[in-house]
Amino acid sequence: MPTRRSSARWEGSLQEGKGTMKLASGAYEGQYSFSSRFEEGVGTNPEELIAAAHAGCFSMALSGGIGRAGFTPDYVATEAAVTVARGEAGFRITTSHLTCRAKVPGMSREAFLEAAAAAKAGCPVSAALGTVEITLDATLEE
Question: Does domain 46-141 have CATH number 3.30.360.10?
Answer without folding.
Answer: no
